[in-house]
Amino acid sequence: MRALIWILLSVSALSAQPKRIISTAPSITETLFALGLCDRVVGVSQYCHYPPEALKRPKVGSYLKPNLEAIVGLHPDLVIVEANLPESASAQLERVKLPTIGMEHGDLEKMFHGMRVIAARCGVPERGAKLEADIRARLNAIRQRTAKLPRRSLVFIVGRSPGSLDGLIAVGKGSYLNELIAIAGGVNALATTAQPYPKISLESMLGLNPDVLVDMGDMAQTEGVTEEHKRQVVALWRRLAPLKSRVFAVASDIFVVPGPRVADAAEAFAQMLHPEAKP
């Protein structure tokens, strides 16, 4: 009798699993695919282009501007969004009364929590546990490899005016990127700031004069960025004689998507900070 009850409960739980899932952010999409749930993903945001298979899914706008008509038309039984949606977007989703869960982002622990929530809701908690364990193992390996190396300073520019050094926005305290820089054997020169992504002046940047400067400022749209564009970005900084930093221009989602590929970002930071220490 107990065995029969267990089977019935299992079948009931399985039937409750979402079969048609919509993701409204790249980090959510990458997590769903990493959990082996690609066959259930029926719609993604316009900014989701990894893995390549995600490009084949219908687009439903973005988390800031969800396309309600497209979402409803795909008949989802679960919509996964980023927490703290703009009020207008949240109100739209509430009107259609679709099952929705929100993912919180910020530091690495929030990212891992979100992975566990998605895995549990989709009925694959064991896959979620394995994915988390694999990512943590890779991050720990990088941390151990760089633990005894010099702590070099790094500034990561994530926003600025195209073609100029105005409107600089960098990574500060509270961002998961701040944690990845530390894991990679570096010190975020802006780790003492109150905001996760503070605005900084060019004068402040020159005052910091970090060992390593990573610029993704006008390459947030990572698709189609050429090597020539990257060289131009490096040249932009090289005009500043007082700046002694080693400059890297990057254009990859691994640096801006808090998802399964964060260990790739940590490894990239480690190679920038410590080229002498090959993995």
Task: Kindly describe this structure.
This protein has 279 residues and is an alpha/beta fold. The protein has 2 domains: 12-137, Nitrogenase molybdenum iron protein domain (Rossmann fold, 3-Layer(aba) Sandwich), CATH 3.40.50; 145-273, Rossmann fold, CATH 3.40.50. It has 10 helices and 10 strands. It has helices at residues 2-15, 26-34, 68-73, 87-96, 108-121, 125-146, 176-183, 202-208, 227-238, 262-273, and strands at 21-23, 41-43, 78-82, 100-103, 152-159, 168-170, 186-188, 199-200, 212-215, 246-249. Strands 5, 6, 7, 8, 9 and 10 form a 6-stranded mixed β-sheet that branches. It starts with a helix and ends in a 6-residue tail after the last helix.
The counted number of beta strands is: 10
Would you tell me the overall average pLDDT? 88
Shape field: globular
Tell me the strand percentage band: 5-15%
CA gyration radius, whole angstroms: 21 Å
**What number of domains?**
2
Query: What is the annotated CATH architecture of the largest domain?
Result: 3-Layer(aba) Sandwich
Kindly report the CATH topology of the largest domain: Rossmann fold
Count of separate DSSP helical elements? 10
Structural class: alpha/beta
N to C succession of SSEs: HEHEHEHEHHEEHEEHEHEH
Main sheet characteristics: 6 strands, mixed
- Cα distance spanning the termini: 55 Å
